[in-house]
Amino acid sequence: MHEISIADNLLRQLTKIAKGKEVKSVCVEIGCFRNIDLESLEFAISNLKDNYPLLTKCVFEYKLIKALAICYDNNHSYEPEFARGFKCNQCSSGVKEIIQGEEFNLVNIFLNYKI
Ligand SMILES: [Zn+2]
To answer: Separation of 90 CA from ligand 1 center, angstroms?
Structure first.
């Protein structure tokens, strides 16, 4: 379950960014092709965040980003799906390039400035 190390890394980075302020909420974008199981990540974060004093009250929000690819033969933009063998839905050629869906981005972080 590599989500544990991803979660721990994220929490460590957030602590650095917060520079001593309490973190109220965080939004993370996760691409569908990033090989991250969201349920496992949520579980890991909720279990690990108590180890990080600035993050114990932090609310985590996750946005899933769907995958988009360009097909090999005709440069169609399409949503690659496992059920179709990741082939283009218009011409059935394969993936030339994944243009979206591999993200792991910190989108928002809200800090508590009240003392
Ligand atoms: Zn195509």
So the answer is: 5
Give the Cα separation of 71 and 14 in Å (integer). Answer: 37
Q: Which fold has domain 3-112?
A: hypothetical protein PF0899 fold (3.30.2320)
Residues with CB under 5 A from ligand 1 (ion): 71, 74, 76, 88, 90-91
Q: Residue 72's closest CA among 84, 57, 61, 86?
A: 86
pTM: predicted TM-score of the whole model, two decimal places: 0.84
- Look up residue 93 and give its DSSP letter: -
Task: Identify the pLDDT of residue 115.
Answer: 59
Tokens 């799906």, located at residue: 81
Give the residue ranges of DSSP H helices in the chain.
3-18, 38-48
Residue 98, φ and ψ in degrees, nearest 5:
-90, 120
Low-confidence ranges of the chain (pLDDT < 70): 1, 115
Residue 77 pairs with which residues in a beta bridge?
Answer: 70
Q: Is the dihedral of CA 64, 90, 85, 72 positive or negative?
A: negative
C-alpha of residue 6 to centroid of ligand 1, in Å:
34
